[in-house]
């Protein structure tokens, strides 16, 4: 039988509760791998007493599967904040102490070509159809996307699994697109997102004002051909109807189709950026080939204050941009604050848009929400692991005077580039056309949780 490509659900156990989380899909085995062999992996995570325990149940996938000889877990999920072998408190295999059979180098004979420099290898596994491999670490390390290499016979599979992530952080929510959302539009997608602390109400499927487009499809869930699974797909239109900004009659020079962290800083404070908190946001996106920005704004991601007297402009945006002629298409990351001299403007520029077109990329942002804060972003192309953007600023203003929290937004939000919906003809830039974005795998983590998130600062 062929190797199953879908990995089993992982169950995360925190403070007595269990949450099922999809770990994603396994990477394809090497081209010369024996398709009759393989293993499935299920993950159980628990946290208590300042320690994190990871249990990997590894089961033969079929009659052709060979006995598992080595299990290698990548620990390099979070660069300098990742765990190492020195953090291991205990390691067992099928209940037996395995600490004398651990290694931090690949050694001879695995043939796994491990790409990480920070991993732990469980050696000399006995013959069995199922192994329970358990690792306890000293410290809080939340579930993050990682990888494991499983050597059985001559085959070494690399599989996407959950592994220990950034030290001291807690995963507060995670969301992927569900197949049951296929064919559902705005209310169904919004109801689904709100279970996880997100919201989808800012789109042109509206009436009144300007730019309403009730007959158009702006948000949907579809099977994305590269990943081979369901993801969210957002659209913005020039033809046959020029979409607007939520049918607003005042902001008539722009278009918006965005999802966001839910506008609720009580029940859902854990998905917001609150004062003095550290937060990590992770997600994946794919822009289509031929996406055409202009010299005006076209944000696909925003960190934006919800309230206060200075919440007009976002604090951080990821923005495709071009020259007025449509050339020099690039990706920018822009920082702005309250008009003070701490505004840093365009902090990343001239990253070719072509590096992103028709490519899935993984984004990780880390923020410290204070006036003398921290912002780091790493964007990695999934196909080949190429790091496209790696930027860090350890002294950057990440707050707005008088705000209570910073929310996150994703989607398509762009200027009509000189056009206005209250004029005939509208007169927008001829560069503008229908555009879309695929997006999925939202993860939110936080540490130094603010006990009073509703206070202004």
The largest β sheet comes out as:
8 strands, antiparallel
Q: How much helix is in the residues?
A: under 10%
Structural class: mainly beta
Beta-strand portion reads 35-45%
* CATH class (first level) name of the largest domain: Mainly Beta
Order of helices and strands: EEEEEEEEEEEEEHEEEEEEEEEEEEEE
pLDDT < 50 runs, ≥5 residues = 1-36
- The CATH topology label of the largest domain is Jelly Rolls
Number of domains: 2
Distance between the termini: 60 Å
What would you report as the Rg, rounded to the nearest angstrom?
A: 23 Å
In total, the number of strands is 27
Morphology call: globular
Continuous helix count: 1
Specify the CATH architecture of the largest domain. Answer: Sandwich
Mean pLDDT across all amino acids:
91
Q: What keyword list fits this structure?
A:
single chain; 457 residues; mainly beta; Immunoglobulin-like; Jelly Rolls; eight-stranded antiparallel sheet; seven-stranded mixed sheet; 1 helix; disordered N terminus
Describe the structure.
Helices cover 2% and strands 44% of the residues. With 457 residues, it is an all-beta fold. The chain folds into two domains: 10-167, Immunoglobulin-like (Sandwich), CATH 2.60.40.290; 172-447, Sandwich (Jelly Rolls). The protein is globular, with a radius of gyration of 23 Å.
